[in-house]
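pasting for ref
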Amino acid sequence: MVLDISKVSIPVHSGIYIMKDFKGNILYIGKAKSLKNRVRSYFVKNQNYKTQKLVEKIDDIEFVLTDNEEEAYLLESNMIKRYRPPYNIELKDQQRFTYLRITNEEFPRLMVARRTRAGEFLGGGRVYGPFTHGSSKMLSIGLLRKTFKIRICKRLPKEACLEYHLGNCEAPCQFAQARKRYPEHIAELESILKGKQRLGDFVAKLEKEMKEASSDLQYERAKEIRETLQRLQNLQTRQKMETVSNSDEEYFGVRTSEQTVHVMSFRQTRGVIKDRNKFSFDIVGDNSFSNFLSQYYSTNPIPKYIVVSEMPERKEILEEIFSRSAGFKVNIVLPTGGKRKDMVDLVLKNIDLTLSKGADPALVELQQKLGLRHIPRKIECFDISNQGTDYAVGSMSCLVDGKPFKSGYRKFKIKTVKGRDDFAMINEIVKRRYLRLREVESEMPNLILIDGGRGQLNAAQGALKSVGAKIPTISLAKENEEIYHPDYKEPIVLPKSNPGLKVLQHARDEAHRFGVAYNRALRKF
């Protein structure tokens, strides 16, 4: 039973709304400048399928007011990370970011912090992070333990273990002096993890101590410090390889396919592409590219320039939030030309390649140029072959995955048109073809191609409308190889070397060849 929204008191204020099912489980968390207007919009007709399914499960709605829309963005992001509602955007790649935990034992250990699905950290102690590139950071944990002499044993042994003899631990289980120094090691480690003390400063401090120990003839102590410095050098090298906080720009491409949004990003540092990420999320409620960016940069380093294929909603608010978090001015840019536009186009091509699942690149190119929802894996092309007023026939070629599918070719005797009227003939054969397919419930093509110009295209569209068939349709005029599209006033002109154009030409030439052969066969009798 759908919640009666008329009985819910909704504030006219900015804030977030929390939708719950009858068990009290959180289904969805959203934000709004006006809570009343936004929440009521869920309960009107004509919502997409997934939003309808969400609304059917709502039993209660809670509200949290904020002073402005910017605060609503931040609160929504934090609440989503904490509760991970099933209908919100969940960035699965967040698992790449590692948290570290210092336990609350008498002699604390350094561990990887594990989380529940609800976002709660398991185990006691103090948690630090997130750290980027989790797998590499986990490899560095061993170096951190050795550098700061942190024990790894689950229980304190009765005697000093192998780690002590290897110089990785001072054995607080055995020696009073080690027990006294252990809290100092933990404090220094925490200072590094908190970012209060840089590794470089810590290295300088140790180098000074090493020189003093050597001057005091404490050679064993100097040797220990030198080994620690070597380990820190390895750790610094890893961090230099990992750091992307100084990245100049990050590029985002966005494609929507069947109620799912696909996002891919390329991160550039000093002119070099350093990383690539892929995400997807369902179009439910407020889920949008703007929400995605808010979630993404809550756990990822923020660059100076965020370059996008489409401008997110509330661009100014996002820029303000990101700038405040990063500590420098952040700009969201929609390029119209130049290298940035080329890079965004490259990201979009990569998304299309992923979505195409191995389709011919020429067909993917056609999908982009013609603005098609689906890759034109199956193309049917129509042509009229006229030889005087007495001999006129129609023909249809069929290309599947860019190659001729000859058992799918069809030929038509013109039955209702007298004289040379190409427009009327195209109308007839297109109507006959798709009326038949609808009657037998056969598979429709992804694209219809008509040999001719705007007039032939209009005739074909009229035929499709009369039989209730909605199929993307274009025409190809032979003289200048111009593509006429129903949604554009001017024809599309592709370079002669364009692989997508070559597919269309192949389909047109096949239809023409097949029609001429049929016409000649009829005139022999």
